[in-house]
Write a structure and sequence with these properties.
It is built from seven helices and 18 strands. It is of the alpha/beta class. It folds into two domains: 128 residues, Elongation Factor Tu (Ef-tu), domain 3, CATH 2.40.30; 128 residues, Rossmann fold (3-Layer(aba) Sandwich), CATH 3.40.50. Helix 6 packs parallel to helix 7.
Amino acid sequence: MKNSDARPNRGCFEATVLTNTIVRRCYRRLNLRLDARGSAFFRDVKPGQFAELDLSSLGLPPTGAIDKPLRDAAAKKILLRRPFSFSDVHLAGDSPPAVCVEILYCVLGPSTLRMTTLKPDDVVSVIGPLGNGFSVPRGKRLAVLIAGGMGSPPLQHLAEYLRSNYPDMRVIVFAGAKTLDDFPFIVNVLDGGRCVPDEFARLGDEAYVATDDGSAGAKGLVTDCADAWLAQHAVQAEDAIVYACGPEPMLAAVASLAEKHGLDCQVSMERMMACGIGVCQSCAVETRAAAGETEYRLCCKDGPVFNAKDVCFRK
């Protein structure tokens, strides 16, 4: 079949806001219902893919609602779309069924500040689904998910995807942040003081939390927590795979961890992705090529998910 005859795998369409709620501090959860065209594109979306939202027409919240650190950012105009991954994708009970997506976001700058003004029935222009998501190699029976801070959304989507499509696969989740308040979801405290992230706890067979300051879960780096678990359970390399998303230093540590234990590893990279389709060339990721050389690949088009062995992590 010629490419011109094939059904396009992405498009530009509209989505209607269902809810836009506060999770904690600067974190919010945006739920969107895609229109019929968008729903057709998103029926086969993979965890780790993303969409570009047009936020240029949104206004600012009332001045009194803007925190002091954001006041300067509030004055900046929004020209380009912004990329967001999904923490959940599911079918609504409409006829025909519509696809709904959930986006976790952190209010950090002019775009996300304006996102807080979205209310039910508002309409947003969306381009997607974009990029390449996570894949599941044949024969894997154990998935180890490692999330750092705002790296949790695509891994939450992945955990749900694995539970639905690979019911025999064991899923172990590790979530890390600087402090308890830096998790983009509510953390439940169980008897004995053990903490688990609520969204992951219901999806994974086991879930663990680590914070730099010890305010929730284990004190220290989440990669150290995962390393100890892997060493204790003597995981067989051919049976397991590691998935990770978070700050690049953490991803570099996860790549080293996977190499240490001989495990396959896929990482979701973060870059400024202005266009989302490989035109602007603004999201280059240095990767390893043949004969010890390196080459630059585009995070939006070749990624954002890469084999950890291929990435030359920034120091």
